[in-house]
Structures are given as C-alpha cells and as structure tokens.
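Same chain as my last thread, 128 residues:
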Amino acid sequence: MSSVSPGSTSGEQESITLGYTSDVIYIKFGDGSKAYLTYKIDGDKMYLIETYTPPQHRGRGYAKLLVDKAIEIASMKGVEIVPICSYSVYYFLKNKDKRVILAEPYRSMSDQELENYYKARLEAERSK
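reply #2:
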C-alpha cells in the first residue's frame, strides 16, 4: 500500500491509500469510502472487470490511478490486459501510448473501433 495525493478539482490535495489484492485494486479515502477496480488474472491475461469511484470523489483522476496501477501489476506479472469495464476501455482510448500492454485484438484496434467497443461496453453496463 502507498499513500498518494493527486490534485482535486478544488485545488486541494487529499491523502489517499492505494493498495491491491489478488483481485482488486483499491483506494481508501479519508472519509472512509473506497474506489476500486476488480480484475482477474487468467493465464497470460489480466481482465479489468469493474471500476467504481464514489460520487463525491469522481472527476479527480482516481479511476485513472486505478488503471495505472493495473498496468503496473500487469507489467510486473508479464501479462496483457483485456479491458472489459467501460472506464478501462475509455482509459486506453484516451491514452494511446499505454495500448502496448493490451491483448489482441484490442491493441490493434483503430480509435474508431475502440470507441465503438467503449460504447458497447457502456451500453451493456447501463442495461444491468
């Protein structure tokens, strides 16, 4: 676990704890709430399943921190990432330089194909 202080929209710095287990990467906030990214490693793939940030902490870059940590873990373990949750797809859509860690066919997708996949994942999540 590590403590980090990303910037917030109000210019304040909030102290958080970033940690992970074998199936979840999490951020503990000072107010007792948690953001998380659930994942599963199967063979040479890391599946990013679900991302959640509490409403009061959204828009401050915490979900990005979670995916950044997932990339770090995947790199350490020598596995490729399969983005399933819509936020993880969005992350790779916006961070082209990070796509090298993606498994095929995601790594080779054009921006438009990745955008279409993002929209499909978003729709699937909304229909749950």
